[in-house]
Design goal:
The chain is 4% helix and 52% strand. It is mainly beta. It has one domain. Strands 1, 2, 3, 4, 5, 6, 7, 8 and 9 form a nine-stranded mixed sheet that branches. The longest helix is centred in the first third of the chain and has 5 residues. The two termini are 17 Å apart.
Length: 114
């Protein structure tokens, strides 16, 4: 499925959050599919500096839009998030594995998530 059909000419955003918990640290990649609704979220266990075109990522439940701009403690003792990158996303393909193009300050290029 091509991004024009999914998103049209809209500039959709992404954010990468470093999610620290007592026993573990991982990175959450949150993607807009539209300017409304929840954010599609993937958990990645590699720091963004090590991301390659084939990115092992675990699909998580969708997150609230507040996380596009939020940094700080997460309620319920679920840790702390710090924003490490943000920019625009183009959704190139949906399915079992997602193909996206990210244009951020740190992360740039095409990635297959899954």
């Amino acid at each position: 499925m091509e991004s024009q059909g999914l998103c049209g000419p809209q500039k959709l955003r992404f954010v990468i959050l470093r999610h620290q918990r007592t026993a573990d640290t991982h990175w959450d990649l949150l993607l807009e599919l539209s300017h409304e609704g929840l954010l599609v979220t993937f958990q990645v266990h590699l720091p963004p500096q090590q991301w390659g075109p084939d990115l092992p990522a675990i699909r998580l439940p969708d997150h609230r839009r507040i996380y596009l701009d939020y940094e700080g403690e997460i309620s319920g003792g679920r840790g702390h998030v710090t924003r490490v990158d943000a920019g625009t996303v183009e959704i190139l393909e949906l399915g079992d594995r997602w193909r996206v193009r990210l244009e951020g300050g740190l992360v740039r290029g095409e990635f297959v998530l899954g």
